[in-house]
Design brief:
heterodimer; A: nine-stranded mixed sheet; two-stranded antiparallel ribbon; B: alpha/beta; 5 strands; globular
Chain lengths: ~220, ~190
């Protein structure tokens, strides 16, 4: 099944929701209507690819478990409004637990995290299977500093794990080894493994991913 | 046969909603591997937008790889199916990306195939790399425009495809036979 057909199926469902009064209206800013849900996906080539939670933790600046708050529009990636630019969608994550904070970083309270984006025409994009988070959702996030400094960003498309009643919902390619390993597994078991990953990173048993560094 | 009027009403409402509301009502999608951006035909025109020297070479390389498949590629200075840019996009996660900026829709507003694609290469993240990595990225992104998804070591056991999903395979600069077959299936 291709991407467009996936979009189409969900599109029809949302059309029904809106017709039945359950949908939300997109915000309007000047001439741009910003989608309130992703219309399409961004595909690409990433710098990191992780084989284990320990490797992911060791590569991160910050790894937290937290609860998602409201979403808002952030800054632009590229020249604002240019055809090749995108605009950040940010969510606030109320930190419940810090698993990893490299370099003695002080992490507490709430973190702004990039989650999805819009094109300059207002189209909402989901990048590489990292779905848009909703307020109230709980998750584990492996994060790095962003160039803009406005918010933290995921290390890559594997680095978001929504923790729900149905178990763990990993982000990224469904066929990815790490995603397949944890999809639907109990949250408690996953958090225990993440704690072990943090321990391994702290002791040097797990090393950062450097495969994406030039050579 | 008994017809459920409530179900019938809901389906009609959904179809009408799709027709009336257009792209503003587009909902969440599910992300999956092994999928790219579905092009709307086999003739894809490409426009370069003020590329750097390395970006230009990478795009030439990727263009050639796609041309070797069933898709015919051409250059244009006007309206293009694929617009290519490079620059510093202030993100540390990726070296190249593609996204559909204009979907075609069927009679009831259902997105079907992509008319216009935007491709970006990040000059900051690719900057330290040799031309090989740039070309690998150009190949990868043009592969996505042919509806190719990612491959991993488990389904690229001979380490031969530029569609591998990470940057740890900079020497992989070709769409291989498996990739070409997958593009054929798109049409």
């Amino acid at each position: 099944m291709n991407v467009s057909r996936q979009v189409g199926g969900a599109w029809l469902a949302a059309a029904f929701l809106m017709m039945s009064g359950c949908g939300s209206q997109a915000e309007v800013s000047r001439a741009v209507t910003w989608d309130d849900r992703p219309e399409s996906v961004i595909k690409g080539k990433e710098i990191h690819h992780f084989e284990s939670l320990g490797e992911m933790v060791a590569t991160a600046d910050v790894v937290v478990v937290g609860t998602v708050g409201e979403a808002r529009r952030g800054g632009w990636y590229g020249d604002p409004g240019a055809p090749d630019s995108t605009r950040a969608r940010l969510v606030d994550v109320q930190v419940e637990k810090v698993l990893w904070a490299a370099g003695g970083r002080r992490v507490e309270g709430s973190l702004a995290v990039a989650n999805g984006s819009w094109g300059p025409e207002g189209i909402g994009y989901m990048t590489e299977g990292v779905r848009w988070l909703e307020p109230g959702e709980r998750g584990l996030f492996a994060l790095q500093e962003a160039e803009s400094g406005e918010a933290l960003e995921l290390l890559n498309s594997q680095s978001q794990f929504v923790l729900g009643r149905a178990g763990v919902e990993p982000s990224g390619d469904a066929e990815g080894d790490l995603a397949a390993q944890w999809r639907g597994k109990p949250v408690a078991a996953f958090l225990t493994a993440a704690d072990k990953g943090a321990h391994d990173a702290a002791t040097g048993a797990a090393r950062p991913d450097t495969k994406g560094e030039p050579r | 046969m008994r017809i459920d009027l409530r179900l019938l009403t809901a389906l009609v409402a959904a179809a009408l909603g799709a027709l009336l509301l257009g792209p503003l009502a587009v909902p969440a999608t599910a992300g999956h591997g092994e999928e790219g951006i579905d092009p709307d035909n086999k003739n894809q025109s490409v426009r370069k937008h003020s590329l750097t020297e390395k970006g230009n070479k990478a795009v030439n390389w990727g263009f050639g790889q796609l041309e070797n498949s069933v898709i015919d590629t051409s250059w244009t200075s006007g309206d293009a199916d694929i617009g290519v840019y490079d620059g510093d996009y202030d993100q540390n996660q990726w070296v190249g990306q593609v996204r559909c900026v204009d979907w075609n829709h069927n009679a009831i507003g259902w997105p079907t195939t992509c008319d216009d694609i935007t491709m970006r290469l990040d000059t900051e993240n690719l900057g330290p790399w040799s031309q090989w990595m740039w070309n690998s990225t150009g190949c990868h992104e043009f592969g996505h425009t042919g509806d190719l998804g990612h491959r991993q070591s488990s389904n690229d056991s001979d380490d031969n495809s530029c569609m591998r999903d990470d940057a740890d395979a900079p020497s992989l600069i070709y769409l291989d036979g498996h990739d070409d077959d997958a593009i054929k299936q798109t049409f």
